[in-house]
Specification:
Serine Threonine Protein Phosphatase 5, Tetratricopeptide repeat, globular, 17 helices, 3 domains, 5 strands
Length: 422
Amino acid sequence: MKKIHGLFWFRHDLRLHDNPALSALSEQVDAMTCVYLYPKPYTSSHVPDEFGDGQCQKLFRDQSLLALRDALQAIGSDLLIVERDESCEARQIASLCEQLKVDVLGVTADGGFYERQSVAQIRASVTSLKIASEQSGTLFNEEALPFEINDMPNVFTAFRKKVEKYADVSSPAETVTALPPALDTQCESLSLDPEGNNGNFKGGESAGTTHLQYYFGETRAASEYKKTRNDMDGWLPSTKFSPWLANGSLSPRTVYQRLRRYEEDVEQNESTYWIFFELLWREFFHWLQMKHGADWFAYSGFQDNTPDTRFDKQTLKRWCDGNTGYDIVDACMRQLNQTGYMSNRGRQLVASCLVHELDHDWRSGAAYFEKQLIDYDVASNWGNWLYLAGVGSDPRGHRRFDLKKQADFYDKDGSFRATWLK
């Protein structure tokens, strides 16, 4: 009897907990291989290659992948890490499927325009291939939403009111504890370098779940979240879940489940609700990018107006390097360059500066963040930049911040600026 071969394609789901697509594939095949396509150094027409090195992001990714490989090996499987063919990753996966005589491809459904396009191309090119695809990167499954994607509100408040009233958060899937034996691929995995320091941010599922338990189980930070979330620096003022959520080392449904347990066992207040509120913002941008497709990356976004800005290399360099002359902005950008992370308040201020004070094309800012952030997420990153540039979901048109007023309010004693401008 012919053995059924499977291939699981890890993308933004680098975990064994709450990974229903991985479970679904394992139940359908006799042997399977897991693969990750490792991206080449980031390039974009909006940011010169020499701007930013992306090393913090690379370190976090490498740590996450090596942790995943170790976890897979512990349950009898393995992870093949190969360099991504940036010209056509769909063709690369299709070729690997043909080479390994794969009958079923497992992949977690993703709302990103290019991610969805790749899966569609694979379906079209290998018509005999069965695809096992499940959702787990969002709080809600698509069928639970109280609207069709094309009819969803473009404004967050309207979205929030609908989903809070009508949609149920999906329960996390059971952790995968066993997989069919690995196929012999005759391919050698890339050598990765997990050595380095991103502060408290260490990549990998175990690190993410450990931080989740620490935050809700050993601190009461969740009870103060709404008061502290705009702090410019520090470990506990905000949840810091975003890096692990971004590459899927941590499931949003697991975060939500742990939040609810905190509310039952410790305290439920406005701050604990605000953590859910922020998860809903992440959700909103995920589904909105599905609605708008390629317009997510367009200069005029999905609004019928075109920004009056331009690209200027020297202006952009000053912003990227933290040399704009706006001290709060420069401190935030230097923090980003050194750590791969920046507070949410900081992101709003530096975006406002680039677009409104420096009159620069917002897409350069979004692209630079894509290169540098350890918590880069296509939906949240580009969605927030669209919002600040006035070509996205902001009902007021655009957000321009008074940078001096913001600095005086959020860095009253100047300690944040002193730390990063020294």
